[in-house]
């Protein structure tokens, strides 16, 4: 769909805004806001998180399509009282100001009446409710992303400060016109979001298929003609008659991470990376938010140095919507040290590292520990729970064959998943371009706005 342009334009005086409609104004965010602030990590870090309490929003909860609270954490009322200055309220606009997610933003919904934020999330409180929606849409525009890139000057780890955020400029239409633009963008992005949701549903189905492939292979093997026996475990069912069934701890070493004090974390990339729970994803290691530790000779930390091929698991919230937070360390991740609430797992004897990786990634493992974590806000597993996990163990050669077959099948599924993700990226690109054109007046959408 093509849109008309406005009749008259003027130079905005801002390179990345270009020309804007002649009757619009260009204003800094600080002149449209009564408060620009952020929070902090509570003293004691993640140790202060509780099972239920005040919602504590981190950068991984803030997305351009709204708040994602599936992995939200909580702080106690006492901790919240100590950080009262960073409480947020409905209508505030949240902006990620550090790390790979820098620039993601959303508005605090009306039903979130009591929450707080950490230091990676900035809260912008509009001076007038009538301008809030336009500021929010403008923060999602390419123009703001360019301003963020400019003020960062390539130092992505430094993030944005409040002066930089306040100095960012947006094009501001008259209130009535801004309301029409917001209505139009809400309508059109809702349609685009529906298409994106369809692709995400497909991805979810592919994830289920991937899990089924893994679970069947590690419990039934590859030969459908092989005689079976009762495993003696209800959720495991029958397994090939020549397989062993035993507790995983018999053939595993489990190393919990060291309790590095968060007050001494470093941001100096010359130091050694710390592998925290936040860095352990589903089948991948993520270094979006990285902290470091300065090593010294004789510091006693050699035992917590990870090695190429080590399998690691996030002990807090081990299962998320994408799957089990289990991954393999690669050479590119090294050197790094193991932090508490993450465990390194190494197989030996009759059990291969490849097979334990598949087993811990399977729904079998979820079935094993989930009864003990049901209803808990922040599920946690312990080394003893991993050790008690009853697993089927084929002969080592068969384990190799199973892993190779699963690798082929999951690669095919992953390719389909990648196609769906590409489609999502294109739709999101279209969404971003439409928002940017509308909030800067490059197109006139007033007549297309729903009544």
Descriptive report:
This protein is of the alpha+beta class. It is built from 9 helices and 27 strands. It has helices at residues 77-82, 129-139, 142-152, 162-167, 175-220, 353-361, 363-373, 383-388, 396-439, and strands at residues 9-11, 19-21, 25-28, 33-38, 54-57, 62-63, 66-67, 73-75, 87-88, 93-96, 105-107, 115-117, 121-126, 169-172, 228-230, 238-240, 244-247, 252-256, 272-275, 292-293, 311-314, 319-320, 323-324, 326-328, 336-338, 342-347, 390-393. It has a 4-stranded antiparallel beta sheet with strand order 4-13-10-11. A 4-stranded mixed beta sheet has the order 8-5-12-9. A hairpin with a 2-residue loop joins strand 22 (319-320) and strand 23.
């Amino acid at each position: 769909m093509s849109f008309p342009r406005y009749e008259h334009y003027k130079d905005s005086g801002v390179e990345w805004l270009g020309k804007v409609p002649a009757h619009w104004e260009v204003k800094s965010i600080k002149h449209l806001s009564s408060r620009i602030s952020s929070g902090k990590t509570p003293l004691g870090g993640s140790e202060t998180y509780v099972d239920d309490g005040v919602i504590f929003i981190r950068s991984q909860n803030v997305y351009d399509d709204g708040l994602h609270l599936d992995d939200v954490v909580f702080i106690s009322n006492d901790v919240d009282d100590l950080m009262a200055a960073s409480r947020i309220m409905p209508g505030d606009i949240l902006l990620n100001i550090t790390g790979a997610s820098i620039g993601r933003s959303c508005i605090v919904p009306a039903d979130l009446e009591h929450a707080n934020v950490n230091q990676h999330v900035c809260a912008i409180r509009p001076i007038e409710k009538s301008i809030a929606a336009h500021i929010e849409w403008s923060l999602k525009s390419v123009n703001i992303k360019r301003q963020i890139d400019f003020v960062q000057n390539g130092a992505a780890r430094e993030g944005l400060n409040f002066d930089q955020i306040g100095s960012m400029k947006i094009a501001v239409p008259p209130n009535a016109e801004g309301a029409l633009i917001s209505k139009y963008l809400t309508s059109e992005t809702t349609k685009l979001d529906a298409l994106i949701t369809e692709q995400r549903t497909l991805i979810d189905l592919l994830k289920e298929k991937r899990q089924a492939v893994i679970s069947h292979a590690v419990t039934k093997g590859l030969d459908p003609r092989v005689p079976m026996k009762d495993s003696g475990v209800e959720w495991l069912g029958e397994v090939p008659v020549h397989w062993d069934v035993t507790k995983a701890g018999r053939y595993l070493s489990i190393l919990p991470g060291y309790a590095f004090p968060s007050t001494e974390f470093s941001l100096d990339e010359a130091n050694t990376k710390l592998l925290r729970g936040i860095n352990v994803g589903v089948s991948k290691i993520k270094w979006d938010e990285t902290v470091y530790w300065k090593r010294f000779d004789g510091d006693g930390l050699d035992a917590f140095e990870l090695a190429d091929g080590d399998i690691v698991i996030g002990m807090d919230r081990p299962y998320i919507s994408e799957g089990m937070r289990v991954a393999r360390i690669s050479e590119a991740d090294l050197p790094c040290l193991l932090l508490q609430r993450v465990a390194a797992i190494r197989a030996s004897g009759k059990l291969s590292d490849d097979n334990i990786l598949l087993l811990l990634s399977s729904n079998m493992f979820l079935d094993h520990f989930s009864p003990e974590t049901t209803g808990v806000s922040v599920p946690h597993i312990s080394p003893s729970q991993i050790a008690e996990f009853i697993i089927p163990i084929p002969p080592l050669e068969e384990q190799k064959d199973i892993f190779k077959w699963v690798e082929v099948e999951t690669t095919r599924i992953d390719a389909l998943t990648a196609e769906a993700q590409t489609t999502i990226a294109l739709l999101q690109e279209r969404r971003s371009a439409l928002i940017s054109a509308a909030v800067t007046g490059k197109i006139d959408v007033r007549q297309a706005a729903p009544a």
